[in-house]
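Hey, quick one: can you model this chain's 3D structure?
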Amino acid sequence: HHLIGRNRLVRALPLLRQPSTVVIHILPELRIRKLLLHDYEIRKLEAQIKEKGYIELCTEPYFAPYEYVDPNKSGEDQYQGMDIEVARYIADKIGVDLKITALDFTAVLAGVADGKYDFAISAIAYAPSRAEAMRLSDVYYSSNTGYGFIVRTEDIDKYNDLDSLKDAVVITQSGSVQEALYNQYINGACKEFKLVANMTDGYLAVAEGKADVCICSTASAQLYADANGGMSIPDYRFEVDPNMNGTCVAMPMEGTESLAELVNQCIAELKENGQTDVWYSEYEEQAAALGIE
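Sure thing. Here's the predicted structure for all 293 residues.
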């Protein structure tokens, strides 16, 4: 009985080996086919963009040093900043011109989500809700300074935590991560809440006494405070997902898998040689010299 069982087992072994042998041969072939298809999709996308002759970027150019308007330049040359350099790098990689469309930030997010533009680069921080509405690239720049407040210098000890905001007029940019932080952490627990189209308007409202606290990216707000005086950044920081401290390229969700791959290749190249850090520092200095915040 044992011998019969053993013989059956021996006869069955070749059959058991065959499927595994087939899998060993098929898997590399499937991978090769997948890679070839992926490469074809990227080439097809590049061909479509090259046929247009340009790739269209939408951005809100009022958030130095990511993007800003240089008053000494005209046309599309007036748009400067780290994000513009990243966009130009991607356009150069494809071999086409870069077309820049300036919009309010909410229109930037809506425009790219609706597929009206090829991509958006506008200091767009990662947020789960954004990842559901649009395709987000890998992070191309990270800031460790986080999100907090900017206030008038005389109020720096008055508004230094969430509880202190109950008597404050709070303001921030519509459609921003900062608005999401307000909804999560404050949500009405303040005297009044206002929304503005861009962060500069929020900073100005605080400076002019039309608001008391602006929820902000502290790195950008510090540039404004340094350039204009009379404004300070309290020590308080919101607790956020670390990914929200990084900025991404946004693309329409539909049919952009290959574009996202190309964009991520560009980001990997830029990060490998530290180019985004160089651009950030360069445009931080240039914006400060121009008095742009």
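One thing worth noting: The chain has nine helices and twelve strands.
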